[in-house]
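Hi U.,

Before I forget, here's the chain from the pilot set. I'm dumping it here mostly so it's searchable later in email.
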Amino acid sequence: MQLEHVVVVGVVLAVLLPTWFVAIQGEPPSEEVRIDHSVTEIRPLDGFVDTPNKLSPSQVGVIVWVALFALVGLLSVFHRFMNEAARPNANPDAAAADGGANAAGFTWFDTDDRWVVEYAPSSDALAGLVAMGGLTVLTIVFAALFTAEYLTLARTQYFGVYAFGMFMSLTGLTVSYYAWFMPHVEVAERREHR
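Structure:
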């Protein structure tokens, strides 16, 4: 493990361990409010995962911290995917050396102090079209489920699951478009230090 990774993990643990200790203390137990099932069949607390009915502010804070770190990790995974998995290998003939000629043909990029260092055209692969098509269908399905949940009597049972699925599908759609259908251009620029 590199020193940078150890430092990041140390900072995360230094923040999470004390907050998690406070969160474990929780609040005093309280009585759960129940719906009279002799009157209605609505079960808004039912779900496929057992979850607590009440969280203390400190527990919510820890959950938010963990979720933010998970999102940073997910962003890192997406970034690596875009740059390694779906990007075509750069053609050395298509890339201009530092200070060399603009092999990409974008003369408007070139000035006396700026030039194209690397250019990789988009792959336009069939895999990208399939991924985007599948993610589009998935986004529509989650949006329909979200709307159906709103229009039914329960109204809140799986909102979070459907919204998460819809937004993650949209995120995947954006990442897929960037990875397969956007060219990669790296530009070098000469700067004066003041």
